[in-house]
Amino acid sequence: MKERNEAALVPQEEKDRQQGFMDEVASLGGGKYEIVTYGCQMNVRDSQTLAGLLEGMGYRPAARREEADLILFNTCCVRDNAERRVFGNVGHLQAQKKANPRLVVGVCGCMMQQEGVPEKLLKSSPFVDLVFGTGNLYKLPELLLSVLKERRRRVLVDQNPMAPIAEGLPASRHGGVQAFVNIMFGCDNFCSYCIVPYVRGRERSRAPEQILAEAEDLARQGVQEITLLGQNVNSYRWSDGTDFPTLLKRLDGVVPRLRFMTSHPKDLSDELIETMASGRSICKQLHLPVQSGSNAILQSMNRRYTAERYLELVRKLRAAMPDIGLSTDIIVGFPGETDDDFEATMELNRLVRFDSAYTFLYSKRQGTKAAAMENQVPEETMKERIYRLIAQQEAITQEKLRSMIGHELEVLVEGPSTRDENAYMGRTDAGITVNIEAQGLRPGDFALVSIASAGMNTLRGTVKCVRSR
Ligand code: SF4
Fold first, then answer.
1. Same domain, 142 and 240
2. Closest ligand 1 atom, residue 197 Cα
């Protein structure tokens, strides 16, 4: 029997139909494209699929926006200011569209799944040709063909929370040493501040065989590190009994490094901790969003764990993996957050001492439960609090990074440093960024680096020896 969160697949006939549209678009001669991606890793991965589809239709990446024949905005709606940015950036294309009426402008992603937003966008930017939602990505060939041939606007937003998954779509990853692999889509948790379940639908897992095949294919292409993606990877499951720890065990060793995100604390099992600790290639790194240190706020957020339970998880993780890199997300100023609630967050941070923390001011998202809550916290108060939290975290991060000076750490080289032409950049198993002073390293090399200094968020060192792939 099909498990409730097992993803339904787009039928082969539909995929064949889309392939026909792809061939037809390709016969029109292609052009140059630009994709502008907002938001999280899920969107980055979706943009790779969009790029793969476009390249399959004869399009090539544009070096500069002015050269593009097609510009796609893959949007995010997790924060309120993202919407303003997207509307602003799409609006800026009006002049380019006027100068080049053949330019195709498309907008897709989470924001287009929000009720009323596509209409609002089309009103403010009537020159937009193409709008589609997260569940309709695979229909890009069909939509694009009708824009190109019929010169008419196409809008396709599907609100089906169990939208089927299209397996086997091309992805353009441009040969990096790292890759993202989706293991599931959507979320069932309905944290009271979060819009994701409304725009990405319910939890749907991919078949383990499909995930394994994609990972093996990436390994053959030279990928050294895979990050498994899902809104809550811990609730992955498939009808043959595969849960997330089992899936990790099956993937362990396919590439030298395996990471995953994001983990919900309520679903972090002892078995997962054991699997991480004993895994050959599973990085000792975990992003475990805590969001608040106050039990009253956690309850109001519908997070379904307490601060005590979270601290217990951290204790278990560090007992099993003493060098684990732990990062988190914290929301400051959730409705009803009192001074005492905020102090509880500061206290939890003092106790855990995260390696890094992504701190956010609470952002009201229409349609979520929290948006309708009374006692919203004044912005001034939120800001005062977040500055204190950031200062606390910076001090902890600094202390931790400095304690690594003099140590030797293995670093996977990702490429030349963007800030320093005499250095390379890579990351440790625990996820710390290291700038390496060296000559002749190649992306994909594993370098043993002697740490000489610490910056605000990064380490710096020299190479002791290199293991090439
Ligand atoms: S777990 Fe909560 S915060 Fe994360 S995507 Fe799901 S609803 Fe949003």
1. no
2. 7
Taking residues 103-125, report their average pLDDT.
93
Angle between helix axes 12-27 and 140-150 (nearest 10 degrees) is 40
If asked whether residues 299 and 383 sit together in one domain, one would say yes
Residue 163 lies in a domain: no
Does 2 reside within a domain? no
Q: With contact defined as beta carbons under 8 Å apart, do 70 and 54 qualify?
A: yes
Measured in residues, the chain has a length of 469
CB 36 within 8 A of CB 193: no
Closest ligand 1 atom to 200 CA:
5
Q: Which residues line ligand 1 (CB under 6 A)?
A: 187, 189-191, 194, 196-197, 231-232, 264
Domain-ending residue, one of 354, 379, 402: 402
Tell me, in angstroms, the distance from the centre of ligand 1 to residue 289's CA.
10
Domain membership of residue 445 as a residue range:
408-467
Q: What is the pLDDT of residues 178-194, one digit of tens each?
A: 999 999 999 999 999 99
Residue with tokens 């106790």: 351
The answer, yes or no, to whether residue 418 has pLDDT greater than 90, is no
For residue 457 the two structure tokens come to 């968020």
pLDDT at 208 over 50: yes
CA of 317 to the centre of ligand 1 (A): 22
- 84 and 121 belong to one structural domain: yes
Number of neighbouring beta carbons within 10 Å of residue 366: 14
- Domain closes at, from 402, 426, 445: 402
Name the closest-CA residue to atom 1, ligand 1: 189
